[in-house]
TrEMBL record:
Pathway: Amino-acid biosynthesis; L-homocysteine biosynthesis; L-homocysteine from S-adenosyl-L-homocysteine: step 1/1. Gene3D superfamilies: Adenosylhomocysteinase-like, NAD(P)-binding Rossmann-like Domain. One of its GO terms (cellular component) is cytosol. InterPro entries: Adenosylhomocyst_ase-like_sf, Adenosylhomocysteinase-like, Ado_hCys_hydrolase_NAD-bd, NAD(P)-bd_dom_sf, S-Ado-L-homoCys_hydrolase_CS. Residues 183-345 form the S-adenosyl-L-homocysteine hydrolase NAD binding domain. Its EC number is 3.13.2.1. NCBIfam families: ahcY, PRK05476.2-3. It comes from Sulfobacillus thermosulfidooxidans. It is an enzyme of class 3 (hydrolase). The lineage of its organism: Bacteria, Bacillati, Bacillota, Clostridia, Eubacteriales. The keyword Transferase does not apply. It comes from the Bacteria. This is Adenosylhomocysteinase.
Length: 411
């Protein structure tokens, strides 16, 4: 039994799903095979991902492959209610609606775990956290899972480092066909899509402060420059700071950058990156957005506490905070993931790659029983996804001759 806001929205959701299927050659190739082979027959798959059209196609694919599937959203504001309604008509159990409060958000994850999963697809470790606390009794059923995000993999490694991880997890985020594309190009485009559609403001000629220069941060910075902005990067890692500098960006501390920024985008995976001591130095009208997994990078509680007034913006995803120093700062999407809470997430072609890795990683777990721990994606899986993508684009590449292979393998 699904938990939805409005089942009557299903036709709109099907339109979105039909649109993205046309641009997902990797999942379509898997679909053809899964219909015949039923690799997940008898498996119960619990999913926590941002619930929009691309995710729905993945969940449907796993169900077509024989699994019982139950899904919820990994963010209270990233659910698209029409897509959730459409997915529930395909045989997938759905527990999600946009704007869920903390209690409802937790209950949705509990309902998904009621399926007593044998396999997981997780985003930020939401399911794993509960399987190691309130639902620990169900962990014995889990053969393994796949983690989507940098934040989730970091949490998993911390758990494994304490020898407390109860099942094997594959770090999909670290695969080449994930982090080189999803994190960089996907986050770069979708973050600015979310900011621009939410604010309707011009980026060209402004100063953008990007906090964090990992793969996601460099994507955000690169796209900002492409839109005509000057970019300042803040970092704690000296190697990445040097990379940002050599890529043509200015590098400063957040304290130094605060007076200059027109837009601030956090992409660090850490908490309290922008704090009250930074807020008071910012320009009137500065825009604050977060593109990291959790809503802790901008100190929203601190911002609310110091504001003398909170005023509405142009839509539900924009709030203005009037400070004692008289300037107004505009917070987007309550400090949650701006590309999903205020947009449609990564482009279709990008998520096709990531979700192909997710599905194939679950197959790998079924065929290769592993001890508890964090494991890389099988290189053969990574390569297959890359090859399918090129084939779909009609692109051919060279292959090594036998002599070249021998040369590369020889002393």
């Amino acid at each position: 039994m699904s938990t939805l806001k409005d089942p009557g929205l299903a036709s709109l959701g099907h339109d979105k799903m039909n649109w993205v299927r046309r641009k997902m050659p990797v999942l379509n190739a898997l679909r053809d095979r899964y219909v015949k082979e039923q690799p997940f027959k008898g498996q119960r798959i619990a999913i926590s991902l941002h619930l929009e059209a691309k995710t729905a196609v993945l969940a449907e694919l796993l169900h077509i492959g024989g699994a019982s599937v139950s899904i919820t959203s990994s963010n209270p504001l990233s659910t698209q209610d029409d897509v959730a309604a459409a997915l529930a008509t395909t045989g997938v159990e759905v527990h999600a609606f946009r704007g869920a409060n903390d209690e409802e958000f937790d209950q949705f994850h509990q309902h998904v775990l009621d399926i007593e999963p044998t396999l997981l697809i997780d985003d930020g470790g939401e399911l794993t956290e509960r399987l190691h606390s309130s639902r620990k009794d169900l962990a014995r059923n889990v053969l393994g899972g796949a983690e989507e995000t940098t934040t989730g993999v970091t949490r998993l490694r911390a758990l494994a480092g304490e020898h407390r991880l109860l099942y094997p997890m594959i770090a999909v985020n670290d695969a080449d066909m994930k982090h080189l594309f999803d994190n960089q190009y996907g986050t770069g485009q979708s973050t600015w899509d979310g900011i621009m559609r939410t604010t309707n403001l011009l980026i060209a000629g402004t100063t953008v402060v990007v906090a964090g220069y990992g793969w996601c941060g460099r994507g955000v910075a690169d796209r900002a420059r492409g839109l005509g902005a000057r970019v300042i990067v803040t970092e704690v890692n000296p190697v990445r700071a040097n990379e940002a500098l050599m890529d043509g960006h200015q590098v400063m501390t957040m304290d130094q950058a605060a007076p200059y920024g027109d837009f601030f985008v956090t992409v660090t995976g850490n908490r309290d990156v922008i704090r009250p001591e930074h807020f008071v130095k910012m320009k009137d009208g500065a825009v604050l957005a977060n593109a990291g997994h959790f809503d802790v990078e901008v100190d929203v509680k601190g911002l609310r506490a110091m504001a003398t007034e909170v005023i509405p913006g142009r839509n539900e995803n924009v709030e203005g905070f009037v400070l004692p120093t008289k300037q107004t700062l505009w917070l987007l999407a309550q400090g949650r993931l701006v590309n999903l809470a205020a947009g449609d997430g990564h482009p279709v072609e990008i998520m096709d790659l990531t979700f192909g890795l997710q599905a194939l990683s679950l197959e790998y777990l079924l065929n290769h029983p592993l001890e508890p721990g964090v494991y890389p994606v099988d290189p053969a899986v990574d390569r297959w996804v890359a090859e399918i993508r090129l084939k779909a684009l009609g692109i051919e590449i060279d292959t090594l001759t036998p002599d070249q292979e021998q040369y590369m393998a020889s002393w």
